[in-house]
Specification:
- This protein is an all-beta fold.
- The chain has a single domain, classed as Beta-galactosidase, Chain A, domain 5 (Distorted Sandwich), CATH 2.70.98.10.
- Helices cover 3% and strands 41% of the residues.
- The chain is built from two helices and 31 strands.
- The strands form nine sheets. A nine-stranded antiparallel β-sheet has the order 11-12-13-14-31-25-24-17-22, with no helix packed on it. It has a five-stranded antiparallel β-sheet with strand order 1-2-3-4-5, with no helix packed on it.
- It comes from Clostridium gelidum.
C-alpha cells in the first residue's frame, strides 16, 4: 500500500490543491483531491488483467471549478432535492437557493462542499482524511459544522468512504459521493449494458420535479424492480410514468435491512470487462441515477461524456426527508455525531 501526494493545481484564490494517489498491491488505484474532497479516478483490474479507470472526471483542476455534472463530488450539506428550497427545524424556517425548478438540489451547485478547498491529513499508507469547517448559515444551513471525509483503499480491493460531522446547532446533515461510474471504462460510451442489483423491495415514487410523493411502494411488477439483476437498459425506455418524469432512472430506493448497520445494498457488473462492484452502506436510502440528463462534457483524455455515459449509485437519507415526516429524519442535534460509511468493493 502507498499514498503519493502531488500538486493538482492552483485554486481561484491562489492556493495549492493536491491530488493523492492511493495504491494497493493488487493494481487497484484511487485518485482523490482535497479540492471538493473529490474522487478523480478509480482504476480497477479487468478480467484480461488490464487496468481500467471506471470513474468519470477531468484531467485538470480548473475543470472542477465548473463541474456542472458534479463528477466525483462530495455533496453537502445535503444531497438530492428539497422541495421548495426550504425546511423547518423547530420554529425556524431555513431558505436555500432555488436551483432546480423552484426546488433545491445538492445544496448549492455553485459553492457547495465540492467547490471548497478542504484541509487534509494523511492517516497512513492507505487512507487520507479531508476536513472542513462549514460556518453557520453557509448555503442557508444552521450551525457551525465540522465535517470530514476519509478515503481508504483496502488490500481486498475496496474503496471505503467514511463521513463524519458535528454541529454546534441542530441542523440537517446528509452527505454522499456523486461519482459517475462506467464499469466498461470511463471512455467507453453508455452504461446501458451494465447489470444492476438493488436490495430494495420498495422505492419512493416521484412527482414533477423528481420530488418524492411521500409514499413508499413495492417495486414488484414495475421497472424499479432490481431484486433480480438486470441491465440498466432493459426497461429504461418503458412507457412508465415514473420513468417519464425522470427521463429514466433517477429514483430513491428504500433499502432492505435498514437497522443492521453496514450491509450489502447493491451490485453492478460489466460482463464484457469482468468487473463487479458491490456497494455496502449503513444508510436507509439509495439514489440510482442513470445519467439521463447528462450534457456533453469533455472529460479525461479528451473523451466526450454523453447522455448515460455513467451511473450514480448514492447511499443517503431519502430525498426531501427533511420535509416528509414519515421518512427517517436527517436532523442532528447540537453535539450529535453524524457518521456513515460507504464501501465500493470490487470482486
Amino acid at each position: 500500500m502507498s499514498i503519493k501526494k502531488e500538486i493538482f493545481g492552483i485554486t481561484k484564490e491562489g492556493k495549492e490543491a493536491y491530488i493523492f494517489t492511493l495504491v494497493n498491491s493488487k493494481g487497484m488505484k484511487a485518485k482523490v483531491t482535497n479540492y471538493g474532497a473529490i474522487l478523480v479516478s478509480l482504476f480497477v483490474v479487468n478480467k484480461s488483467r488490464k487496468v481500467k479507470d471506471i470513474a468519470l472526471g477531468y484531467d485538470k483542476l480548473e475543470d472542477y471549478f465548473t463541474n456542472n455534472l458534479m463528477l466525483g463530488a462530495t455533496v453537502g450539506r445535503n444531497v438530492n432535492r428539497i422541495e421548495g428550497a426550504k425546511f423547518k427545524i423547530d420554529d425556524t424556517v431555513y431558505h436555500l437557493v432555488k436551483n432546480n425548478n423552484g426546488n433545491n438540489i445538492h445544496s448549492d451547485k455553485d459553492c457547495g462542499f465540492h467547490k471548497v478547498l478542504w484541509n487534509f491529513k494523511v492517516i497512513n499508507d492507505s487512507a487520507v482524511e479531508f476536513y472542513y469547517k462549514s460556518f453557520d448559515g453557509e448555503q442557508g444551513f444552521p450551525g457551525n459544522l465540522d465535517v470530514s471525509v476519509t478515503y481508504s483503499l483496502s488490500e481486498g480491493n475496496g474503496l471505503i468512504i467514511s463521513y463524519r460531522g458535528l454541529s454546534d446547532k441542530k441542523t440537517l446533515i446528509n452527505l454522499t459521493n456523486h461519482t459517475y461510474f462506467n464499469l466498461n471504462g470511463h471512455d467507453s460510451g453508455d452504461i446501458l449494458d451494465t447489470k444492476v442489483t438493488i436490495n430494495a423491495d420498495y422505492y419512493t415514487p416521484i412527482k414533477d420535479g423528481i420530488i418524492p410523493t411521500g409514499e413508499i411502494v413495492s417495486v414488484k411488477g414495475t421497472p424499479m424492480d432490481f431484486i433480480i439483476p438486470k441491465t440498466i437498459g432493459k426497461e429504461i425506455e418503458n412507457d412508465c410514468e415514473q420513468l417519464k418524469l425522470a427521463q429514466g432512472y433517477d429514483h430513491n430506493f428504500a433499502l432492505n435491512n435498514q437497522d443492521i448497520g453496514i450491509r450489502k445494498i447493491a451490485e453492478a457488473s460489466s460482463e464484457s470487462e469482468g468487473i463487479t462492484m458491490e456497494v455496502y452502506s449503513d444508510q436507509p436510502g439509495l439514489q440510482f441515477y442513470a445519467g439521463n440528463t447528462m450534457k456533453e462534457t469533455v472529460g479525461k483524455g479528451g473523451v466526450v461524456y454523453k447522455k448515460r455515459g455513467g451511473f450514480c449509485i448514492e447511499p443517503h437519507f431519502y430525498p426531501n426527508s427533511i420535509n416528509i415526516e414519515s421518512f427517517k429524519s436527517p436532523i442532528f442535534d447540537k453535539g450529535e455525531e453524524y457518521k456513515t460509511t460507504t464501501i465500493y468493493q470490487f470482486v
